[in-house]
Protein backbone atom coordinates (compact mmCIF):
# COMPACT_ATOMS: atom_id res chain seq x y z
CA UNK A 1 0.00 0.00 0.00
CA UNK A 2 1.27 3.48 -0.82
CA UNK A 3 2.49 5.47 2.16
CA UNK A 4 5.16 7.84 0.86
CA UNK A 5 4.57 11.48 1.64
CA UNK A 6 3.34 13.40 -1.37
CA UNK A 7 2.03 10.23 -3.00
CA UNK A 8 -1.38 11.77 -3.66
CA UNK A 9 -1.11 14.48 -6.29
CA UNK A 10 -3.14 17.61 -5.46
CA UNK A 11 -4.66 17.51 -8.89
CA UNK A 12 -6.01 13.95 -8.54
CA UNK A 13 -9.72 13.91 -9.22
CA UNK A 14 -10.86 10.32 -8.76
CA UNK A 15 -14.35 9.20 -9.71
CA UNK A 16 -14.72 7.58 -6.29
CA UNK A 17 -13.08 8.14 -2.90
CA UNK A 18 -13.41 5.39 -0.29
CA UNK A 19 -12.63 6.70 3.19
CA UNK A 20 -11.14 3.95 5.40
CA UNK A 21 -9.45 0.67 4.63
CA UNK A 22 -11.79 -1.74 6.43
CA UNK A 23 -13.95 -4.58 5.12
CA UNK A 24 -16.71 -2.22 3.90
CA UNK A 25 -14.50 -0.07 1.66
CA UNK A 26 -12.61 -3.17 0.51
CA UNK A 27 -15.89 -4.86 -0.45
CA UNK A 28 -17.13 -1.78 -2.29
CA UNK A 29 -13.82 -1.56 -4.16
CA UNK A 30 -14.27 -5.21 -5.21
CA UNK A 31 -17.87 -4.66 -6.33
CA UNK A 32 -16.88 -1.56 -8.32
CA UNK A 33 -14.22 -3.74 -9.96
CA UNK A 34 -17.10 -5.91 -11.24
CA UNK A 35 -19.58 -3.25 -12.33
CA UNK A 36 -17.39 -0.26 -13.20
CA UNK A 37 -13.84 -1.53 -13.75
CA UNK A 38 -12.76 1.64 -15.56
CA UNK A 39 -13.65 4.03 -12.75
CA UNK A 40 -10.80 5.74 -11.03
CA UNK A 41 -11.03 4.74 -7.34
CA UNK A 42 -8.90 6.02 -4.43
CA UNK A 43 -8.85 4.71 -0.85
CA UNK A 44 -7.61 6.89 2.05
CA UNK A 45 -6.75 5.10 5.29
CA UNK A 46 -5.69 7.14 8.31
CA UNK A 47 -3.70 4.38 10.03
CA UNK A 48 -0.31 3.05 8.92
CA UNK A 49 -1.97 -0.04 7.50
CA UNK A 50 -5.40 -1.20 6.35
CA UNK A 51 -7.71 -3.47 8.42
CA UNK A 52 -6.43 -2.25 11.78
CA UNK A 53 -9.74 -1.33 13.42
CA UNK A 54 -12.95 -3.41 13.71
CA UNK A 55 -12.10 -5.56 10.68
CA UNK A 56 -8.81 -6.76 12.20
CA UNK A 57 -9.05 -10.47 13.14
CA UNK A 58 -8.69 -10.01 16.93
CA UNK A 59 -10.92 -6.94 17.04
CA UNK A 60 -14.05 -8.93 16.16
CA UNK A 61 -15.27 -12.46 16.89
CA UNK A 62 -14.86 -13.70 13.32
CA UNK A 63 -18.26 -15.33 13.24
CA UNK A 64 -19.64 -15.72 9.75
CA UNK A 65 -23.03 -14.50 11.00
CA UNK A 66 -25.70 -16.60 9.33
CA UNK A 67 -28.11 -17.01 12.26
CA UNK A 68 -27.18 -20.68 12.63
CA UNK A 69 -26.31 -20.15 16.30
CA UNK A 70 -27.05 -16.53 17.30
CA UNK A 71 -30.25 -16.68 19.34
CA UNK A 72 -30.92 -12.93 19.11
CA UNK A 73 -32.14 -13.47 15.51
CA UNK A 74 -34.87 -15.86 16.73
CA UNK A 75 -36.53 -14.24 19.74
CA UNK A 76 -39.30 -16.20 21.44
CA UNK A 77 -42.72 -14.98 20.33
CA UNK A 78 -46.19 -15.26 21.83
CA UNK A 79 -47.08 -18.72 23.14
CA UNK A 80 -43.45 -19.82 22.95
CA UNK A 81 -43.38 -19.83 19.14
CA UNK A 82 -40.32 -18.72 17.18
CA UNK A 83 -40.48 -16.59 14.05
CA UNK A 84 -37.65 -17.55 11.64
CA UNK A 85 -37.96 -14.42 9.41
CA UNK A 86 -34.98 -12.46 10.72
CA UNK A 87 -32.75 -15.56 10.84
CA UNK A 88 -33.64 -16.35 7.20
CA UNK A 89 -32.70 -12.79 6.13
CA UNK A 90 -29.32 -12.93 7.92
CA UNK A 91 -28.54 -16.38 6.50
CA UNK A 92 -29.51 -15.26 3.00
CA UNK A 93 -27.18 -12.24 3.32
CA UNK A 94 -24.29 -14.48 4.33
CA UNK A 95 -24.94 -16.68 1.29
CA UNK A 96 -24.58 -13.51 -0.80
CA UNK A 97 -21.16 -12.86 0.81
CA UNK A 98 -20.11 -16.48 0.19
CA UNK A 99 -21.07 -16.26 -3.47
CA UNK A 100 -19.21 -13.01 -4.02
CA UNK A 101 -16.08 -14.29 -2.23
CA UNK A 102 -16.27 -17.45 -4.37
CA UNK A 103 -16.53 -15.32 -7.50
CA UNK A 104 -13.42 -13.39 -6.48
CA UNK A 105 -11.51 -16.60 -5.69
CA UNK A 106 -12.43 -17.99 -9.13
CA UNK A 107 -11.34 -14.69 -10.67
CA UNK A 108 -7.88 -15.07 -9.09
CA UNK A 109 -8.06 -13.38 -5.66
CA UNK A 110 -4.58 -13.49 -4.15
CA UNK A 111 -4.10 -16.25 -1.54
CA UNK A 112 -6.06 -19.35 -0.62
CA UNK A 113 -9.62 -19.23 0.76
CA UNK A 114 -8.37 -21.02 3.92
CA UNK A 115 -6.51 -17.81 4.77
CA UNK A 116 -9.81 -16.06 5.43
CA UNK A 117 -12.61 -18.63 5.86
CA UNK A 118 -12.71 -22.01 7.67
CA UNK A 119 -15.60 -24.37 8.46
CA UNK A 120 -16.39 -24.37 12.19
CA UNK A 121 -19.66 -25.87 13.54
CA UNK A 122 -22.07 -23.29 14.94
CA UNK A 123 -23.83 -24.34 18.14
CA UNK A 124 -26.50 -22.66 20.29
CA UNK A 125 -26.51 -23.70 23.94
CA UNK A 126 -29.05 -23.06 26.72
CA UNK A 127 -29.75 -24.35 30.20
CA UNK A 128 -32.95 -24.81 32.22
CA UNK A 129 -36.39 -26.05 31.23
CA UNK A 130 -37.49 -22.71 29.72
CA UNK A 131 -34.30 -22.63 27.66
CA UNK A 132 -34.92 -26.16 26.45
CA UNK A 133 -38.54 -25.39 25.47
CA UNK A 134 -37.33 -22.33 23.54
CA UNK A 135 -34.56 -24.31 21.85
CA UNK A 136 -37.03 -26.98 20.70
CA UNK A 137 -39.37 -24.32 19.29
CA UNK A 138 -36.46 -22.61 17.54
CA UNK A 139 -35.28 -25.88 16.06
CA UNK A 140 -38.79 -26.68 14.78
CA UNK A 141 -39.08 -23.23 13.19
CA UNK A 142 -35.63 -23.27 11.55
CA UNK A 143 -35.44 -26.94 10.51
CA UNK A 144 -38.42 -26.30 8.20
CA UNK A 145 -36.35 -23.69 6.30
CA UNK A 146 -34.15 -24.94 3.42
CA UNK A 147 -31.42 -22.49 4.46
CA UNK A 148 -31.15 -24.27 7.82
CA UNK A 149 -31.03 -27.77 6.39
CA UNK A 150 -29.15 -30.22 8.59
CA UNK A 151 -29.63 -28.26 11.86
CA UNK A 152 -29.45 -30.87 14.65
CA UNK A 153 -31.08 -30.68 18.10
CA UNK A 154 -30.04 -32.47 21.27
CA UNK A 155 -30.78 -32.27 24.98
CA UNK A 156 -28.90 -35.46 25.77
CA UNK A 157 -25.89 -34.61 27.97
CA UNK A 158 -23.96 -37.60 26.61
CA UNK A 159 -24.40 -36.41 23.03
CA UNK A 160 -23.56 -32.83 24.00
CA UNK A 161 -20.38 -34.12 25.65
CA UNK A 162 -19.37 -35.25 22.14
CA UNK A 163 -20.34 -31.94 20.52
CA UNK A 164 -18.77 -29.66 23.17
CA UNK A 165 -16.54 -31.69 25.53
CA UNK A 166 -14.94 -28.64 27.18
CA UNK A 167 -18.32 -27.14 28.08
CA UNK A 168 -19.79 -30.36 29.43
CA UNK A 169 -16.81 -31.50 31.54
CA UNK A 170 -17.55 -30.97 35.22
CA UNK A 171 -21.09 -29.68 34.56
CA UNK A 172 -23.75 -30.47 37.18
CA UNK A 173 -25.38 -33.66 35.80
CA UNK A 174 -28.80 -32.54 37.07
CA UNK A 175 -28.69 -29.35 34.98
CA UNK A 176 -31.12 -29.32 32.03
CA UNK A 177 -29.18 -28.52 28.84
CA UNK A 178 -30.18 -28.20 25.20
CA UNK A 179 -28.35 -27.26 22.00
CA UNK A 180 -28.57 -27.11 18.23
CA UNK A 181 -25.63 -27.71 15.91
CA UNK A 182 -25.00 -26.80 12.30
CA UNK A 183 -22.02 -28.06 10.32
CA UNK A 184 -22.48 -25.15 7.89
CA UNK A 185 -20.89 -22.57 10.23
CA UNK A 186 -17.67 -20.67 9.56
CA UNK A 187 -14.93 -18.66 11.22
CA UNK A 188 -13.88 -15.71 9.08
CA UNK A 189 -10.68 -13.71 9.33
CA UNK A 190 -12.10 -10.41 8.10
CA UNK A 191 -8.70 -8.73 8.47
CA UNK A 192 -7.06 -11.16 6.04
CA UNK A 193 -10.02 -10.86 3.67
CA UNK A 194 -9.83 -7.04 3.74
CA UNK A 195 -6.14 -7.16 2.86
CA UNK A 196 -6.71 -9.61 0.01
CA UNK A 197 -9.52 -7.49 -1.42
CA UNK A 198 -7.46 -4.30 -1.26
CA UNK A 199 -4.34 -5.95 -2.69
CA UNK A 200 -6.48 -7.24 -5.53
CA UNK A 201 -7.97 -3.78 -6.03
CA UNK A 202 -4.49 -2.23 -6.16
CA UNK A 203 -3.53 -4.67 -8.90
CA UNK A 204 -6.53 -3.40 -10.88
CA UNK A 205 -5.31 0.19 -10.48
CA UNK A 206 -7.16 1.31 -7.33
CA UNK A 207 -4.91 3.67 -5.35
CA UNK A 208 -4.74 2.67 -1.67
CA UNK A 209 -3.09 5.36 0.47
CA UNK A 210 -2.28 4.76 4.14
CA UNK A 211 -1.39 7.41 6.76
CA UNK A 212 -3.88 9.71 5.03
CA UNK A 213 -6.65 11.02 7.28
CA UNK A 214 -9.71 12.54 5.66
CA UNK A 215 -10.66 15.51 7.81
CA UNK A 216 -13.07 17.45 5.64
CA UNK A 217 -15.86 16.77 3.16
CA UNK A 218 -17.74 19.53 1.37
CA UNK A 219 -19.97 19.64 -1.71
CA UNK A 220 -18.75 21.97 -4.48
CA UNK A 221 -21.02 23.91 -6.79
CA UNK A 222 -20.36 21.47 -9.66
CA UNK A 223 -21.73 18.63 -7.49
CA UNK A 224 -18.33 17.05 -6.77
CA UNK A 225 -17.10 16.40 -3.23
CA UNK A 226 -14.02 18.22 -2.02
CA UNK A 227 -12.12 15.73 0.14
CA UNK A 228 -9.52 17.25 2.48
CA UNK A 229 -6.78 14.84 3.41
CA UNK A 230 -3.90 15.18 5.88
CA UNK A 231 -0.78 13.04 5.86
CA UNK A 232 -0.54 11.73 9.43
CA UNK A 233 3.27 11.41 9.21
CA UNK A 234 4.22 14.74 7.65
CA UNK A 235 1.15 16.86 8.38
CA UNK A 236 1.00 17.78 4.69
CA UNK A 237 -2.49 18.67 3.50
CA UNK A 238 -4.05 18.13 0.10
CA UNK A 239 -7.42 18.14 -1.53
CA UNK A 240 -8.98 15.85 -4.09
CA UNK A 241 -12.36 16.17 -5.79
CA UNK A 242 -14.57 13.12 -6.37
CA UNK A 243 -17.92 12.41 -7.98
CA UNK A 244 -18.80 9.89 -5.28
CA UNK A 245 -17.57 9.40 -1.70
CA UNK A 246 -18.14 6.38 0.52
CA UNK A 247 -17.41 6.97 4.19
CA UNK A 248 -16.34 3.47 5.22
CA UNK A 249 -14.54 4.85 8.25
CA UNK A 250 -16.19 2.53 10.82
CA UNK A 251 -16.42 4.46 14.09
CA UNK A 252 -15.04 7.49 12.22
CA UNK A 253 -18.04 7.59 9.86
CA UNK A 254 -20.42 9.63 12.04
CA UNK A 255 -18.10 12.65 12.51
CA UNK A 256 -17.23 12.73 8.79
CA UNK A 257 -20.85 12.53 7.67
CA UNK A 258 -21.62 15.33 10.12
CA UNK A 259 -18.83 17.38 8.50
CA UNK A 260 -20.31 16.69 5.06
CA UNK A 261 -23.34 18.63 6.32
CA UNK A 262 -25.90 16.37 4.66
CA UNK A 263 -29.39 16.75 6.13
CA UNK A 264 -29.78 12.96 6.23
CA UNK A 265 -27.32 12.68 9.15
CA UNK A 266 -29.35 15.02 11.39
CA UNK A 267 -30.63 13.25 14.49
CA UNK A 268 -28.02 10.48 14.33
CA UNK A 269 -25.66 9.95 17.23
CA UNK A 270 -23.28 7.23 18.34
CA UNK A 271 -22.59 5.48 21.60
CA UNK A 272 -19.23 3.68 21.84
CA UNK A 273 -18.87 0.36 23.65
CA UNK A 274 -15.57 -1.48 23.64
CA UNK A 275 -15.48 -5.24 23.41
CA UNK A 276 -13.20 -7.38 25.56
CA UNK A 277 -12.64 -11.12 25.34
CA UNK A 278 -10.87 -13.81 27.36
CA UNK A 279 -8.50 -15.77 25.16
CA UNK A 280 -6.63 -19.03 25.55
CA UNK A 281 -4.12 -20.70 23.27
CA UNK A 282 -3.87 -23.87 25.40
CA UNK A 283 -3.83 -26.77 22.89
CA UNK A 284 -5.62 -28.98 25.42
CA UNK A 285 -8.52 -26.53 25.84
CA UNK A 286 -8.69 -25.83 22.11
CA UNK A 287 -8.87 -29.54 21.30
CA UNK A 288 -11.91 -29.83 23.62
CA UNK A 289 -13.82 -27.08 21.85
CA UNK A 290 -14.00 -27.28 18.08
CA UNK A 291 -17.01 -25.00 17.59
CA UNK A 292 -18.49 -21.55 18.00
CA UNK A 293 -21.10 -21.71 20.77
CA UNK A 294 -23.55 -18.90 21.40
CA UNK A 295 -25.68 -18.70 24.55
CA UNK A 296 -28.50 -16.41 25.61
CA UNK A 297 -28.12 -12.80 26.73
CA UNK A 298 -29.33 -12.08 30.26
CA UNK A 299 -32.97 -10.92 30.36
CA UNK A 300 -33.13 -7.25 29.35
CA UNK A 301 -29.47 -7.11 28.26
CA UNK A 302 -28.67 -5.81 24.74
CA UNK A 303 -27.98 -8.27 21.86
CA UNK A 304 -24.26 -7.38 21.77
CA UNK A 305 -23.95 -8.95 25.25
CA UNK A 306 -24.76 -12.48 24.01
CA UNK A 307 -22.02 -14.68 25.50
CA UNK A 308 -20.11 -16.93 23.12
CA UNK A 309 -17.14 -19.27 23.19
CA UNK A 310 -15.45 -19.34 19.82
CA UNK A 311 -12.85 -21.46 18.16
CA UNK A 312 -10.69 -18.98 16.23
CA UNK A 313 -8.39 -19.88 13.36
CA UNK A 314 -6.16 -16.91 12.74
CA UNK A 315 -3.02 -17.03 10.63
CA UNK A 316 -2.72 -20.79 11.13
CA UNK A 317 -3.04 -20.49 14.95
CA UNK A 318 -5.89 -22.12 16.90
CA UNK A 319 -7.27 -20.44 20.01
CA UNK A 320 -10.48 -19.91 21.97
CA UNK A 321 -12.14 -16.59 22.68
CA UNK A 322 -14.88 -16.02 25.26
CA UNK A 323 -16.93 -12.90 25.71
CA UNK A 324 -17.76 -10.25 24.97
CA UNK A 325 -17.31 -8.21 28.11
CA UNK A 326 -18.09 -4.55 27.65
CA UNK A 327 -15.84 -1.65 28.47
CA UNK A 328 -16.46 2.06 28.12
CA UNK A 329 -14.28 4.53 26.29
CA UNK A 330 -15.49 7.73 24.62
CA UNK A 331 -13.33 6.89 21.57
CA UNK A 332 -15.10 5.99 18.31
CA UNK A 333 -12.07 4.03 17.05
CA UNK A 334 -9.45 2.12 19.02
CA UNK A 335 -6.98 4.69 17.72
CA UNK A 336 -9.52 7.48 18.23
CA UNK A 337 -9.65 10.49 20.54
CA UNK A 338 -11.13 10.87 24.04
CA UNK A 339 -13.12 13.77 22.58
CA UNK A 340 -14.88 11.65 19.90
CA UNK A 341 -18.11 11.24 21.89
CA UNK A 342 -18.45 14.82 23.20
CA UNK A 343 -17.52 16.27 19.78
CA UNK A 344 -20.21 14.18 18.08
CA UNK A 345 -22.98 15.85 20.11
CA UNK A 346 -24.60 18.49 17.89
CA UNK A 347 -27.73 20.60 18.24
CA UNK A 348 -29.45 18.29 15.70
CA UNK A 349 -28.78 15.07 17.69
CA UNK A 350 -28.79 16.33 21.28
CA UNK A 351 -32.47 15.39 21.64
CA UNK A 352 -31.86 11.84 20.35
CA UNK A 353 -28.84 11.38 22.63
CA UNK A 354 -30.63 12.66 25.75
CA UNK A 355 -33.73 10.61 24.87
CA UNK A 356 -31.66 7.45 24.72
CA UNK A 357 -29.91 8.27 27.99
CA UNK A 358 -33.36 8.46 29.59
CA UNK A 359 -35.01 5.42 27.97
CA UNK A 360 -32.24 2.84 27.46
CA UNK A 361 -32.01 1.74 31.06
CA UNK A 362 -31.19 -1.83 29.99
CA UNK A 363 -28.01 -0.68 28.24
CA UNK A 364 -27.08 1.60 31.14
CA UNK A 365 -27.59 -1.21 33.66
CA UNK A 366 -25.65 -3.65 31.49
CA UNK A 367 -22.72 -1.27 31.09
CA UNK A 368 -22.58 -0.40 34.78
CA UNK A 369 -22.66 -4.11 35.68
CA UNK A 370 -19.92 -4.86 33.18
CA UNK A 371 -17.71 -2.01 34.36
CA UNK A 372 -18.11 -3.03 38.00
CA UNK A 373 -17.00 -6.61 37.31
CA UNK A 374 -13.75 -7.80 38.84
CA UNK A 375 -11.44 -10.33 37.21
CA UNK A 376 -12.97 -13.00 39.47
CA UNK A 377 -16.53 -12.04 38.34
CA UNK A 378 -15.46 -12.35 34.72
CA UNK A 379 -14.06 -15.82 35.27
CA UNK A 380 -17.27 -16.76 37.05
CA UNK A 381 -19.16 -15.81 33.85
CA UNK A 382 -16.75 -17.96 31.85
CA UNK A 383 -17.47 -20.87 34.19
CA UNK A 384 -21.13 -20.88 33.08
CA UNK A 385 -19.67 -21.99 29.74
CA UNK A 386 -16.55 -23.86 30.89
CA UNK A 387 -17.29 -25.19 34.39
CA UNK A 388 -13.68 -26.25 35.00
CA UNK A 389 -12.06 -23.08 33.63
CA UNK A 390 -8.84 -22.10 35.35
CA UNK A 391 -8.27 -18.36 35.17
CA UNK A 392 -4.53 -18.84 34.65
CA UNK A 393 -5.22 -20.32 31.22
CA UNK A 394 -7.02 -17.17 30.01
CA UNK A 395 -5.86 -13.63 29.20
CA UNK A 396 -8.03 -10.57 28.63
CA UNK A 397 -7.77 -8.87 25.23
CA UNK A 398 -9.41 -5.66 24.06
CA UNK A 399 -11.25 -6.02 20.75
CA UNK A 400 -12.76 -3.30 18.56
CA UNK A 401 -14.95 -0.33 19.40
CA UNK A 402 -18.61 -0.67 18.48
CA UNK A 403 -20.33 2.63 17.92
CA UNK A 404 -24.00 1.81 18.46
CA UNK A 405 -26.30 3.92 16.34
CA UNK A 406 -28.64 6.38 18.00
CA UNK A 407 -31.34 7.73 15.69
CA UNK A 408 -34.49 9.74 15.90
CA UNK A 409 -37.61 7.61 15.67
CA UNK A 410 -39.74 9.41 13.03
CA UNK A 411 -42.96 8.19 14.69
CA UNK A 412 -42.25 9.48 18.21
CA UNK A 413 -39.50 12.02 17.51
CA UNK A 414 -37.55 10.41 20.36
CA UNK A 415 -34.02 9.00 20.20
CA UNK A 416 -33.71 5.21 19.95
CA UNK A 417 -30.68 2.99 20.26
CA UNK A 418 -30.21 0.63 17.36
CA UNK A 419 -28.08 -2.50 17.31
CA UNK A 420 -27.87 -3.06 13.55
CA UNK A 421 -26.12 -1.15 10.80
CA UNK A 422 -27.50 1.92 9.06
CA UNK A 423 -26.60 3.08 5.57
CA UNK A 424 -26.89 6.85 5.35
CA UNK A 425 -27.11 8.27 1.81
CA UNK A 426 -27.00 12.00 1.03
CA UNK A 427 -26.18 14.56 -1.65
CA UNK A 428 -28.63 12.94 -4.12
CA UNK A 429 -26.75 9.66 -3.87
CA UNK A 430 -23.26 11.15 -4.23
CA UNK A 431 -22.15 10.43 -0.67
CA UNK A 432 -22.89 7.50 1.63
CA UNK A 433 -21.63 6.12 4.90
CA UNK A 434 -22.20 3.12 7.09
CA UNK A 435 -22.93 3.43 10.80
CA UNK A 436 -23.21 0.66 13.41
CA UNK A 437 -21.67 -2.76 13.90
CA UNK A 438 -24.00 -5.75 13.64
CA UNK A 439 -24.25 -8.16 11.84
CA UNK A 440 -21.35 -6.29 10.41
CA UNK A 441 -18.58 -7.70 8.35
CA UNK A 442 -20.46 -10.91 7.46
CA UNK A 443 -23.06 -8.95 5.56
CA UNK A 444 -20.65 -6.44 3.98
CA UNK A 445 -21.52 -7.60 0.47
CA UNK A 446 -25.29 -7.12 0.96
CA UNK A 447 -24.69 -3.74 2.60
CA UNK A 448 -22.55 -2.55 -0.31
CA UNK A 449 -25.04 -3.93 -2.88
CA UNK A 450 -27.73 -1.85 -1.19
CA UNK A 451 -25.40 1.13 -1.45
CA UNK A 452 -25.00 0.60 -5.22
CA UNK A 453 -28.78 0.31 -5.65
CA UNK A 454 -29.50 3.47 -3.64
CA UNK A 455 -26.68 5.62 -5.00
CA UNK A 456 -26.60 4.51 -8.65
CA UNK A 457 -30.20 3.51 -9.51
CA UNK A 458 -29.84 4.72 -13.13
CA UNK A 459 -26.87 2.38 -13.69
CA UNK A 460 -28.49 -0.73 -12.22
CA UNK A 461 -30.04 -1.99 -15.50
CA UNK A 462 -26.46 -2.27 -16.89
CA UNK A 463 -24.87 -3.43 -13.66
CA UNK A 464 -27.48 -6.03 -12.63
CA UNK A 465 -26.43 -8.75 -15.13
CA UNK A 466 -22.77 -8.35 -14.09
CA UNK A 467 -23.73 -8.67 -10.44
CA UNK A 468 -25.89 -11.70 -11.20
CA UNK A 469 -22.95 -13.37 -12.88
CA UNK A 470 -20.85 -12.82 -9.75
CA UNK A 471 -23.66 -13.55 -7.26
CA UNK A 472 -26.18 -15.99 -8.80
CA UNK A 473 -28.80 -15.36 -6.08
CA UNK A 474 -28.61 -11.55 -6.49
CA UNK A 475 -32.19 -10.26 -6.79
CA UNK A 476 -33.60 -13.72 -6.01
CA UNK A 477 -34.52 -15.53 -2.81
CA UNK A 478 -32.59 -18.69 -1.91
CA UNK A 479 -35.18 -19.43 0.78
CA UNK A 480 -37.80 -19.75 -1.98
CA UNK A 481 -35.61 -21.52 -4.53
CA UNK A 482 -34.23 -24.81 -3.12
CA UNK A 483 -32.65 -25.79 -6.47
CA UNK A 484 -30.64 -22.56 -6.68
CA UNK A 485 -29.76 -22.91 -2.98
CA UNK A 486 -28.37 -26.41 -3.54
CA UNK A 487 -26.34 -25.20 -6.51
CA UNK A 488 -24.98 -22.14 -4.68
CA UNK A 489 -24.20 -24.16 -1.55
CA UNK A 490 -22.30 -26.85 -3.46
CA UNK A 491 -20.32 -24.43 -5.60
CA UNK A 492 -19.34 -22.08 -2.73
CA UNK A 493 -18.39 -25.08 -0.53
CA UNK A 494 -16.08 -26.28 -3.25
CA UNK A 495 -14.56 -22.92 -4.20
CA UNK A 496 -14.08 -21.74 -0.63
CA UNK A 497 -12.79 -25.19 0.40
CA UNK A 498 -15.40 -25.55 3.14
CA UNK A 499 -15.62 -29.32 2.94
CA UNK A 500 -13.36 -29.68 5.97
C1 LIG B 1 -16.16 -6.65 19.51
C2 LIG B 1 -16.67 -6.83 18.11
C3 LIG B 1 -17.04 -8.10 17.66
C4 LIG B 1 -17.52 -8.27 16.36
N1 LIG B 1 -17.80 -9.52 15.90
C5 LIG B 1 -18.19 -9.72 14.64
C6 LIG B 1 -18.39 -11.02 14.13
O1 LIG B 1 -18.19 -12.01 14.84
N2 LIG B 1 -18.80 -11.17 12.83
C7 LIG B 1 -19.03 -10.08 12.04
O2 LIG B 1 -19.41 -10.29 10.89
N3 LIG B 1 -18.84 -8.82 12.48
C8 LIG B 1 -18.42 -8.61 13.75
N4 LIG B 1 -18.20 -7.35 14.22
C9 LIG B 1 -18.51 -6.21 13.35
C10 LIG B 1 -17.42 -5.97 12.31
O3 LIG B 1 -16.15 -6.07 12.89
C11 LIG B 1 -17.62 -4.59 11.70
O4 LIG B 1 -18.96 -4.45 11.27
C12 LIG B 1 -16.74 -4.35 10.49
O5 LIG B 1 -15.42 -4.75 10.72
C13 LIG B 1 -16.80 -2.87 10.12
O6 LIG B 1 -15.99 -2.66 9.00
P1 LIG B 1 -15.72 -1.18 8.48
O7 LIG B 1 -14.95 -1.32 7.25
O8 LIG B 1 -17.01 -0.43 8.44
O9 LIG B 1 -14.90 -0.50 9.67
P2 LIG B 1 -13.39 -0.70 10.19
O10 LIG B 1 -12.88 -2.07 10.01
O11 LIG B 1 -13.35 -0.13 11.56
O12 LIG B 1 -12.56 0.20 9.20
C14 LIG B 1 -12.66 1.60 9.19
C15 LIG B 1 -11.32 2.14 8.75
O13 LIG B 1 -11.46 3.54 8.54
C16 LIG B 1 -10.30 4.18 9.01
N5 LIG B 1 -10.66 5.58 9.27
C17 LIG B 1 -11.44 6.07 10.25
N6 LIG B 1 -11.57 7.40 10.14
C18 LIG B 1 -10.86 7.76 9.05
C19 LIG B 1 -10.60 9.01 8.41
N7 LIG B 1 -11.12 10.15 8.88
N8 LIG B 1 -9.81 9.03 7.31
C20 LIG B 1 -9.28 7.87 6.80
N9 LIG B 1 -9.49 6.67 7.39
C21 LIG B 1 -10.27 6.61 8.49
C22 LIG B 1 -9.93 3.39 10.26
O14 LIG B 1 -8.57 3.56 10.62
C23 LIG B 1 -10.25 1.96 9.81
O15 LIG B 1 -9.14 1.31 9.23
C24 LIG B 1 -17.69 -7.15 15.50
C25 LIG B 1 -17.30 -5.88 15.94
C26 LIG B 1 -16.78 -5.72 17.23
C27 LIG B 1 -16.33 -4.38 17.66
What does this entry look like structurally?
The protein is an alpha+beta fold. Helix content is 33%, strand content 24%. It contains 15 helices and 20 strands. The strands form four sheets. A nine-stranded mixed sheet has the order 5-6-4-14-15-16-13-17-18, sandwiched between helices. A six-stranded mixed sheet has the order 8-2-1-12-20-19. It has a three-stranded antiparallel sheet with strand order 9-10-11. α1 runs parallel beside α6, α1 crosses α13 and α2 crosses α15. The chain is globular, with a radius of gyration of 23 Å. The model has no long low-confidence stretch (mean pLDDT 92). Bound molecules: flavin-adenine dinucleotide (FAD). Flavin-adenine dinucleotide (FAD) binds next to α1, β9 and β17. Flavin-adenine dinucleotide binds next to α1, β9 and β17.
Brief write-up:
The chain has 500 residues and is of the alpha+beta class. It has helices at residues 23-35, 85-106, 128-143, 157-163, 165-168, 190-203, 253-260, 283-287, 340-344, 350-359, 361-372, 375-385, 444-455, 460-470, 482-495; strands at residues 16-19, 41-44, 117-119, 122-127, 152-154, 177-182, 186-188, 207-209, 212-219, 225-231, 237-242, 244-247, 269-280, 292-294, 308-314, 317-327, 395-408, 415-418, 421-426, 431-436.
Low-confidence segments, ≥5 residues, pLDDT <50? none
Round the Cα radius of gyration to an integer and report it: 23 Å
The major sheet is characterized as:
9 strands, mixed
Q: Give the proportion of residues in helices.
A: 25-40%
